Amino acid sequence: MQAIIVHGGAWDIPAELHEDHVKGCSKALDLGLDRLKHGHGSLDAVETAVVSMEEDCTFDAGCGSFLNQVGEVEMDAMIMEGRGLHFGSVAAIRNIRHPIQIARKVMQDTKHCMLVGDGAMHFARSIGAEIVPSHELVSPRELQRWRVLQDQKDYNQSSAFETIEKRPMGTVGAVAIDDFGDISVATSTGGTPNKMQGRVGDSPLVGCGTYADNETAGVSATGFGESLMKVCIARNVCEEIRRDRSAQDAARFSIEYLERRVGGRGGVIVLDRRGELSWAFNTPRMAIGHIDRFGKKSVGVRDRQE
Ligand code: GLY
Predict the structure, then answer these.
(1) Which of 68, 171, 233 to mutate to test the pocket of ligand 1 (most atoms within 8 A of CB)?
(2) Which positions are catalytic?
(3) Three-state SS for 94?
(4) What is the best residue among 203, 208, 230 to mutate for testing ligand 1's pocket, by most ligand atoms within 8 Å of CB?
(5) How many CB atoms within 10 Å of residue 242?
(6) What spacing in Å lies between the alpha carbon of 146 and ligand 1's midpoint?
(7) Strands of the chain, DSSP E
(8) Is residue 99's pLDDT more than 90?
(9) What residues have CB less than 8 Å from 84, skipping those under 6 apart?
(10) 26 C-alpha to center of ligand 1: Å?
(11) CB 289 within 8 A of CB 26
């Protein structure tokens, strides 16, 4: 069985950005599926899909990352496989073209699960990762946003956006299942605009923004990390599936729980062990693309009521 689902963030996503989101999700899906079709496992598929989205400055990942309070890009990424529950992650990493590739190497080439700070950079250098000057990861769009937000210490309270829903949240993620029934998940993000230096979100934290378990499902989340991590949303979806909820019910239940318990906003994509694809979000829109186990492809910026 082969199937893949990707997301490019859950927020208001204005109409003028829809085409770019659809194109970016579509390309990531095609590249990911191509890996599966050529005999690669689901880990390769999700890594490839996320690398493609880190290269696309539409999204809050890689070159499109939001800037922190001091105008720097600090990124988080995690990759996980559902057979042995192995994962690798990096947090607050700088000057790296593809954080998801470092996360995978942490998983495969070290005895650890997560690297941060100077140690993560040292490791990235030691494996010959592509290291780029800071300015190559600062997009003109994000520089402009940073200038607007510069005086606002707390993005969550920011008056620069009319409502909570207007806050951009463009984290990217992918979940895939391969012919062996192995489920893998990858998530990558530049975090939230104007975040404090050293702030880490949900994406690289196991069970929060990312989780994979062949016994249940793979889940990648997007949205306001400080809320998502409080309810460990990715693991929560998996455990609801273990309790015999469908992927759709589990996703909806977990987003409702996020909202009820901590007032959180965001979305999840889910691919369960039977190959069922699903998602749920409580923001106005979410960019989602998938290719199901029958090869049917669908990509769109979906409205909340869909
Ligand atoms: N969900 C991404 C973040 O809050 O960092």
Answers:
(1) 171
(2) 171
(3) coil
(4) 203
(5) 13
(6) 17
(7) 3-11, 75-81, 87-93, 114-116, 172-177, 183-189, 210-212, 217-223, 266-272, 277-281, 285-291, 297-303
(8) yes
(9) none
(10) 22
(11) yes
Q: What is the model's pLDDT at position 208?
A: 98
Ligand 1 atom with the smallest distance to the CA of 222 is 1
- Which pLDDT score is estimated for 162? 47
Residue showing tokens 């996020």: 258
Residue 245 CB: number of other CB atoms within 10 A?
18
Question: Measured from the CB, is residue 173 less than 6 Å from ligand 1?
Answer: no
60 Cβ below 6 A of ligand 1: no
Q: Establish whether residue 202 lines the binding site of ligand 1, counting it when its CB lies within 6 angstroms of any ligand atom.
A: yes
As a whole number, mean pLDDT of residues 8-13 equals 93
Name which of 166-175, 178-187, 253-262, 264-273 the model is least confident about. Answer: 166-175
The CA distance from 175 to 45, in Å, is 8
Q: Are strands 114-116 and 87-93 parallel, antiparallel or unpaired?
A: parallel
First to last CA, the chain: 27
pLDDT band per the 50, 70, 90 thresholds, residue 244: very high
**Partners of residue 174 on adjacent β-strands:** 6, 186
Instruction: Give the residue carrying structure tokens 């998602």.
Output: 279
Residue 189 near ligand 1, beta carbon < 6 Å = yes
Q: Which two tokens stand for residue 301?
A: 């910026």
Q: Considering the entire predicted model, what is its pTM?
A: 0.95
